[in-house]
Amino acid sequence: MSKPWSSLCQRLALIFIGAALLGWMTDRLTLALLLAALGALAWQLWQLYRLDRWLNRDPDASLPGSGLVWREVAAHTARLRRQSRKRKRKLSRLLQQFQQATAALPDAAVVLDEEGRVVWCNGASQLLLGLAPGRDIGLPITHLLRHPGFVAFLNVQNPQRDGDSVEFPSPVDDHLLLGARIVPYGKKQRLLVVTDISRVRRLEQMQRDFVANVSHELRTPLTVITGYLETLLDSESVVLDNWRQPLRCMQQQSSRMLHIIEDLLMLARLESQKERLPHRPVAIPALLADIADDALALSGDSSHRIEVNADPELWIRGCEKELHSAFSNLVFNAVRYTHVEGRIEIRWWADSGGIHLAVTDNGEGIAPQHLPRLTERFYRVNRDRSRGSGGTGLGLSIVKHVLNHHGSQLRITSELGAGSVFTCDFPLELRVEPESAPARFGNIYR
User: Fold this and answer.
1) Calpha distance 53→61 (Å, rounded)
2) I want to staple 438 with a disulfide (CB 3.0 to 4.6 A). Which of 14, 17, 40, 312 is the partner?
3) Is 112 left (phi over 0), alpha (psi -120 to 50) or beta?
4) Which is higher by pLDDT, 429 or 47?
5) For the segment 428-444, what is each residue's pLDDT rounded down to a tens digit?
6) Which of 343, 348, 374, 346 is nearest to 361 (CA)?
7) Average confidence score pLDDT of the chain
8) Distance, CA of 410 to CA of 422 (rounded, Å)
9) In this prediction, what percent of the chain has a pLDDT beyond 70?
10) Which has more pLDDT, 276 or 83?
11) Rounded CA separation 172/404 (Å)
12) Three-point CA angle 339, 342, 344, nearest 5°
């Protein structure tokens, strides 16, 4: 027990002992003790009243109370108030610095509550979104930003996928294209971050147009060169006997360049499509059988063992040309990077999680650090090996874009020395009934 409380207890004890003696002497013991208790209570109430008055007026005034306990309580309260003022000043400085930092941000930042109402917004939100801090606080963000794409994104936004984003034109200026992300934080609050991506998209479009134009212009002369080379190689003239090997190398390289140009043009078409192409029922099992035949021809003397296990009744709705390009890229890559007499399995099936295509090989495998970048343009794990096998570095990029057009995704698992598995996951909504009686596909090609 602290010294002030010990002193108070001693004083109260002396008061009650004195009252008891006085009551005993006057034969009024109960009355004396009651009066002593009422007096002590009145005194404490008076001290509480003085403390309350002191707390409600200038905190720098002199401390109230004439007792040790009450003076100690008042002193402790004064210390707490001084500490509280220091914390408030510190928080005020931090808040001012935060407001200055957010005001300098080029991106719009809007804090939303659980129901999507605006809690706070910075200065850039007024320039990009037309929000006014004094006017729009407390209003639903969907009443202020009515673009259908943004409203749909906000309604289905999953906190577990905070990397998702949506693009929409600025309500202030139609020439500005905005990209929005939502980041959950705190207790059921969300931070809406909106960035001006107009310049980035314009640069990307310029890049796509440049690649498409250059590829288109190069295709014609390369086609002419390839045609003349084929004519020369087919000639039986004795004069060309010493030139046949150089001509074959020239034909091989020109064919490789044509392949790269075709892939670049395919990518340009995929990226320039603003809307999805009309999708029709596609007989995937028959498509895979044709791809397996082409893969067998590509294998040649390597004698790969190619196995196709496909559900013959499993058709999907999609663009057959795009799907053929994507699936053939996966299978041909497996042929190129699998050792002689290696095994390649093409599997097509459906389960409760969706519709799947898996291309499995027992080739050389891929190191883990390369997996995140495999779908980038021209990215190669081994440039010398890719160049020798005829790879362009564009196949997996085409696969990614085709799957995006079909609302699907690509999964890659690989282990060095053990092979790789490339899996395409399609939503169940794409499944359609076969249009003709299917044949069973479970063939092995050697």
Assistant:
1) 11
2) 312
3) beta
4) 429
5) 989 888 876 444 455 55
6) 343
7) 79
8) 7
9) 77
10) 83
11) 30
12) 120
**Which whole-number Å values give the CA distances from 334 to 329, 361, 362, 385, 407, in the listed order?**
9, 6, 9, 13, 24
Q: Are 165 and 179 in contact (CB under 8 A)?
A: yes
Residue with structure tokens 């699998």?
338
**Architecture of 200-272 per CATH?**
Orthogonal Bundle (1.10)
- Matching residue, tokens 């003349």: 228
Q: Which of 272, 239, 273, 232 is nearest to 254 (CA)?
A: 232
| DSSP alpha helix (H) spans, 273-312 | 284-299
Q: What is residue 425's three-state secondary structure?
A: strand
Strands 343-351 and 305-310: parallel
Supply 206's token pair.
């310029």
pLDDT at 286: 92
Q: Average pLDDT of 214-218?
A: 78
Quote the CATH superfamily of domain 105-196. Answer: PAS domain (3.30.450.20)
CATH topology of domain 280-445: Heat Shock Protein 90 (3.30.565)
**52-66, 235-249, 261-275, 392-406: the lowest-pLDDT one:** 52-66
Q: How far apart are CA 430 and CA 304, in angstroms?
A: 32
* DSSP-assigned beta bridge partners for residue 262: none
Instruction: Using a pLDDT cut of 90, give the percent of the chain over it.
Output: 10
Q: What are the extents of the domains in the chain?
A: 3-98, 105-196, 200-272, 280-445
Q: Which of 371, 373, 377, 381 shows the shortest CA–CA distance to 394?
A: 377
End-to-end CA distance of the chain: 93
Burial class (CB in 10 A: 0-12, 13-18, 19+), 238: exposed
In whole angstroms, give the CA distance from residue 306 to residue 216: 35
Distance CA 386, CA 382 (A): 6
Beta bridge partners of 413: 421
pLDDT tens string 369-414 = 888 888 877 777 765 554 555 556 778 888 888 888 888 899 999 8
DSSP 3-state assignment of 415? Answer: strand
Q: How far apart are CA 422 and CA 108, in angstroms?
A: 39
User: Phi first, then psi: what are they for 224, rounded to 5°?
Assistant: -65, -45
Q: Which residues contact 183 (CB under 8 A, 6 or more apart)?
A: 162, 190, 191, 193
DSSP structural state of residue 238: G
